[in-house]
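User: I'm writing a tutorial on reading structure tokens. Could you give me a worked example: one chain, its sequence, then its tokens, then a sentence or two explaining what the tokens reveal?
Assistant: Sure. Here is the example chain.
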Amino acid sequence: MRIDPSYTLHNVAGEHIVLIQDDKENKMLSLNPTAVFLWEQLKGKEFTLEEAAGLLTDNYEVGTEQATADAKKWTDELHALGIIR
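And here are its predicted structure tokens:
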């Protein structure tokens, strides 16, 4: 999977957001610090769920099972919004 390069992360008043625009509506996705970390590490690259989870276990005090669940939640949300494919 890959983050679509047409989406960019913006810092607005200390909040990290991604703007999502389509024909029907505009949305704003707010990312927490962990989601921002994954975004920054993975933008512009093909990656797997396992690679995203590995970044979490390597950089945070979290076990493999929790890291995988968190990475899946992150990728599922971005897939649902069309941000990653």
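What the tokens reveal: The chain has one domain: 9-80. Residues 9-80 form a domain with the Arc Repressor Mutant, subunit A fold (CATH 1.10.10).
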